[in-house]
């Protein structure tokens, strides 16, 4: 079950909630902590992309998060 903060953050960053929920708890925590810290520090995230890929040594899915900052104009 997602917390309200996690759900709101995922929605704000356009993160696929089903992909997020399918990850292991520890990976979820690391991912959300990284996203939240980056979001707070930059306050200008324009896109978050999650791609799933299989690893050679493990059957678990790896998650790649790409955070892009939008440049302020003016």
* Percentage beta strand: 25-35%
Largest sheet: 2 strands, antiparallel
User: Over the alpha carbons, how many angstroms does the gyration radius reach?
Assistant: 13 Å
**Percentage of residues assigned to helices:** 40-55%
**CA-CA gap between termini:** 42 Å
Number of domains as seen in the coordinates: 1
Q: How would you classify the helix and strand content by structural class?
A: alpha+beta
Helix-strand pattern = HHHEE
Give the CA-based shape: globular
Question: What does the average pLDDT come to?
Answer: 55
Low-confidence stretches: 43-74
Order of strands across the widest beta sheet? 1-2
- Could you give the count of β-strands? 2
Please tally the helical runs, counting DSSP H or I stretches of 4 or more residues: 3
Structure description:
The N and C termini lie far apart (42 Å). This protein has one domain (4-69). The protein has helices at 4-12, 17-22, 25-42; strands at 45-54, 61-69. 45% of the residues lie in helices and 26% in strands. A two-stranded antiparallel sheet has the order 1-2. With 74 residues, the protein is an alpha+beta fold.
Question: What are the defining features of this structure?
Answer:
single chain; 74 residues; alpha+beta; two-stranded antiparallel ribbon; 3 helices; 26% strand; globular; disordered C terminus
Question: What is the topological layout?
Answer:
Layout: H1 4-12, H2 17-22, H3 25-42, E1 45-54, E2 61-69
Antiparallel strand pairs: 1-2
Task: Summarize this structure briefly.
The chain is of the alpha+beta class and 74 residues long. The chain has helices at residues 4-12, 17-22, 25-42, and strands spanning 45-54, 61-69. It has one domain (4-69).
